[in-house]
Fold:
Amino acid sequence: MTDSHNSGQHKDREAAAAEVRRMWQPTPSWSQPDPGAQAEPEATEPAEENQDALAQEFPGDSWSKPSQPGQATPYSNSQPEAGTPSSAGAGSGSGAGAHSAGTAGAHSASTPEPETNPWGSSKASSGEASSWSIANPGSASGAPTGAPAATPAAAGPPAADPWTQPAEQPEQQAPQLSPTAQQFFPQGIPNQHPQQPQREVSYRAEELMQALPLPREAPAERGVRSVLRLRPGSSERVERIARATAATAFRRPVTITVANPKGGSGKTPTTLLLAGALGQARGGGVVAWDNNELRGNMHLRTHDTNARSTVTDLLQAMPMLTQPDARLGDVAAYLRHQVAGQYDVLTSATTTYSQIEAKDFDQIHRLLSRFYKVLVIDTGNNEGSSNWREAMKASDALVIPIKWKSLSCAAAVQMLEELDHQGPEAQRLIRRAVIAVSNGPGDVNKEVEKQLRPYFESRAAAVVDIPTDPHIAAEGALDHSALQPSTRRAGLELAAKVAEQITIALNVPR
Structure:
């Protein structure tokens, strides 16, 4: 009992292995057999079992399917006896339409023919060519040349010769395993996958660019991730997105106005912090302008890198600077370049003998817009001055610095209400405003923040909190390299929010 069981399993494995070997081997090309080749002996019992397994796998395959009684098997070496009904069916089937069924049957019944070999010449002693020869085009492809030809009336409509017609190319499909082979290969044949359809190659530039792989994300720049060359964390990734947003390429020069009528609300530090964040993200092209009508304090909060030129000196040189051949270097001679923040500074007058009017603002604004991409304007405390109003008219974005103190917030609220009555342009400017909360040591009033934060969040586009920084609180020259990392991240966030609002303003038609 055990031996028979093991023998059955051994036969199943042999059948499965034979089937897999057949699938892995390439299909042999068709070739004409040797006419002198002898018939092969009958297969042994294991071969019959292999044929049964293959017959279950490919039921329409004539190589593995045994011939049925009364059915022609053109690939089999066994020949039916002459004069039997099966010989008539074989003659009609293998002749490919050259003889009709009735004529072939009558001929085989009346005149028994000697046994013939379909792969070679006939056993009869006649010098005729084999049935595969094309010397006699009128003869049937499956019958000897000596057989009588059928009349056109008896033959009927001629059928297509399968040996002369081009074979149809079957669709390539994944090979299927029989139940016996699935026991040994439950996951399918190894390394055998259906062929994927070929994609049409396009040579259009847009499609080729879209097909290119996306660039890999740069590794982290700080912390343990930078040492291990890992991807950045969530906070660093957010910072990268903010830097890319701040570096948005605008289609024209833009103007950002920083305004709050209350003195000491943090206008100048916020202006310099925003200009430095934009300059570092964009690589330059940013100027900070102290647009105070009399005397501002930006010259006290920046590094003096050249001759102490002010806006007054710039106005005196305006005829030369407005010439068509004027260059950026000519204008930069009247500005202060801040190396750490990568931006320039135009300071206000240090004396009171002249006051900046609306016409002066227009000349300076046109000149700076000619050589710089982003203008960040620090305003004074007088909302009624002409240069203050001209700055609001030229603004693409508004930044309102506040402290969580009663006087600072009250002045900002009154300014917003005043702008709300100036028309649709001023109202759109309020909706795009960004609130910058910069508190010094001990400047936070929790009750004021609790009551007024919801108000500013509802009126403005965003509220950005800038943490208390000892370097800013020292009231000296603001050096961006000396700021705390949290302060630099807050300045970059402020620059990104402002850039978003400018993009919206440029895309919305007026």
User: Anything to note?
Assistant: Confidence is low (pLDDT under 50) at residues 46-51, 53-155. The radius of gyration is 47 Å. The CA atoms of residues 398 and 433 lie 5 Å apart.
